[in-house]
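Re: the request from the purification team.
They wanted to know what the chain is likely to look like in 3D before they choose a buffer screen. I agreed to run a prediction and write the result into the notebook, where they can find it.
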Amino acid sequence: MSAISIIEKRRSYRGRFKPQPVPREHLAAIMRAGLAAPSGCNKQTTSLIAVDDKDILARLLGVIDPPVAATAPAVICVLTRRINAYRDRCFAVQDYSAAIENMLLAAVELGYQSCWYEGHITDTDRICDKMAAILNVPGGYDLVCMLPVGIAEDEPTAPKKQPFEERAWFNSFGSKD
């Protein structure tokens, strides 16, 4: 599958997952894709924890309210560190965003689906802190995202997108050129 076709096939999947486990080599391949993402000034602020142990997974998913990804056979938790990269600028958000997108695409290539859960766990109730405690994440790291990984029980559906011509132009904004 070409990179462009994988990009076009990727969806945010929030449905149920089949119970088949995700092999560790697939989880490692997905995480390697994430860690291969660009990083501002190569500070490499992103770290990852894959969870496939059923007991730990149950504890982790048990603190998420309202529940999401309850049937996922594995999750990848994304951690970040705030490290200044250029003068007083930190690119941690850009770093982990690039890593997450790489992982979402790698998951699709390997036959899995996922969804980027960030706001749901980092909101004011700080579910991410409870998750970090379960995973023994040390101080200095923030758990910022969770990606469930598994085989979709249902076919992912494409959201309605605005036409290309309403969001992309050549040479100037709104150009009909």
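For the purification team: DSSP finds six helices and five strands in the chain.
Please add any questions underneath this entry.
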